[in-house]
Amino acid sequence: MDSPAPLQTLRPKSAQTQPGSEAGTDILGNASSPVYSHGQSGSTDNSKNLGEPVVVIQGLSKSYSLPGRDDKVTALHSIDMSEGSEFGPVRRGEFIMIRGPSGGGKTTLLNLIGTIDLPTTGTVELMGESITAKSPDKYLSNLRLSTIGFVFQTFNLIATMSAFENVELPMTLLGKLSEKERKSRAKTLLKLVGLRDRANHLPSELSGGEQQRVTIARSLANNPQLLLLDEPTGDLDTLNTVEIMDLLLKINQEAKTTMVMVTHNPDIECYADRILYVEDGRFQKQVYNTVQSQLYYEEYIQYLAAQAS
């Protein structure tokens, strides 16, 4: 298994919070509330003021049948993230990263949390709603659309739609906002991700980093309580990786959006509150950061060069 990154070697800078875009609103245009306070260096646990449980998992297992094989392959074994368990639930405002070797169960776990897949045994509870193997598709589809945002390594933008239209689409599908409200929110979100001047461009006219920014804006369209990210920086260069992670941290800290992110990159662990290590379908350990941090890009480049020499 990959070992934790030498965060002190990378010399991360402490994250800075910014005021909301307007008085009384956060950076997503929602009614604002105070930003988090952070624990002091040296404390055992991150003392960021987290809220109620958003994701509670009990006895979660997932097995697959493969062609040509009589036995089943078990991808996850009795995962538990509940009150009183060693690993504990995902709480409102928490930024969790899931790491571990390929094939260890990271993406399977993320898909089960996001109701993209269903458990073989056990339950996933999202914002108080219990998900089991018998949960109906329509119920799960509505739950995903209204409460969960997704960001993947592949951007999955609709090629024939502009950046603005891609961001507006989830709001249209949910049907809770008027056309005027949808357009206003899409404009706010594109401004947040730094693409106000690229709103009318098609995905093919945007760089990889810009496309991922559109994807992040789209994932926030319906003001989800939970953002799930599967290798969101996997196809990006170093500069775009740092910029995307800075953006995610800003959203997490200022809008209190809960995030669960799968990554292979140990160097960005400093952005998380908690890192869970998964191998062979089981949690192996967890590590807490006392304070979320960002990377200095120039020093990070020097660090990478030194590692390569």
TrEMBL record:
CDD domains tied to this protein: ABC_MJ0796_LolCDE_FtsE
Region (Disordered): 1-50
GO function terms (MF aspect): ATP binding; ATP hydrolysis activity; transmembrane transporter activity
Keywords on record: ATP-binding, Nucleotide-binding, Transport
Keyword Transferase: no
Record flagged with keyword Cytoplasm: no
Pfam family membership, one: ABC_tran
All copies of domain ABC transporter, residue ranges: 68-305
GO annotation, cellular component aspect: membrane protein complex; plasma membrane
UniProt biased composition (Polar residues): 30-49
InterPro entries named in the record: AAA+_ATPase, ABC_transporter-like_ATP-bd, ABC_transporter-like_CS, ABC_transpr_LolD-like, MacB-like_ATP-bd, P-loop_NTPase
Protein name: ABC transporter domain-containing protein
